[in-house]
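Marked as duplicate of an earlier ticket. Keeping the data here for the record.
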Amino acid sequence: MTPDRYEISPPGARRLDGALQERGARTGLTTGVGFAVGAVFAFAVGAVFAAIGTAIILAGTKVIEVDPRSVHAPYWVLTMAGASFAELGLVVWGMAWRQLAPYRARAEAIRRHPNEPALADYRWHPEGFEVSEWQRFAPALLRPAGLTVFLSVFNWMAFGAKGEFEGITAQLMIKGITAVFDLLAVMLWCLAAWQLGRALKFGHSRVAFTTFPCRLSDPVVLRWQPFKGINRINKGGFTLRCVTEWWERGGRSGFLGLRKDKLVHDETWSAKWLVEQPRNFHPRDDVELRYELPANAQPTNLSAPKPVYWELEVKLDLPGLNFNQAYLIPIYAPAQTPAVKASSPESRMGFDEKEERDGSP
């Protein structure tokens, strides 16, 4: 595919907005005793909620015997309340693990690849970078599912319990508040259904590397390989950009005076392949893209305190659902050792199959 227009951004940094995805391995995080204490505290809090939730679930399922006179709700309500506590514990654990995982991955990468700066910087796959719409569907499904479990207790209190709340005002207030959150859950279920449609249509796609890693001194040649759901493009663009990422410290606000930090992405350079006329697209076709980098381009450094990375954003206007996805591109400084020759474009082996064969990350 040849572009209708090729565009290079003017000099200077531009702030990116929208739904930003954190890419760096240790963006804005601090190490030391304070970090370790915070992580241990988070895991301890999560353990408390998980333990309480598990005990309530066991009581609700009658695994643990309790005095029936102390239970003032159906046992299924008790089970749902326990599930909500356990779910909160898992959420806290997940947040703590997201803080710790980059450090563990970084240490393991340095140990396994002491002489490979690119592989020590990030868990690259030499053949390419693959993304999947199913990865977005999982959290889109878990959010309404968790909220539905949580709201089941309040729905029973508002619409199922008899004589628990005296006075018409209290009853209307409980029902009204519960109905508002029920509406929110319905909206989240609709978003999950929409994301399911995207996953079914677009599946997984990837950018195949012609060499690994790409070098600042050479042209960057990439092959975008979409899923079978794309067969016609109305218009769109393929943007290669260099991004600097950091957390901007915010002031303290709210009742608890918590500090609210902001994730910032600055685009320092970009080039676009623009498709401005409708084109047919055969399933599983490759789109070969070629970019010439400026002399002052920065190399990828995802493990730095202020990460720098390159990404290819594919944004297409299609009949029906539009496509918008970003792929990390390994562009590093020139090295004495030659880059690894990537697989040929005819190779269609999925990453999952290769990982099962050689155990690579």
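See parent ticket for discussion. The CA atoms of residues 132 and 183 lie 29 Å apart.
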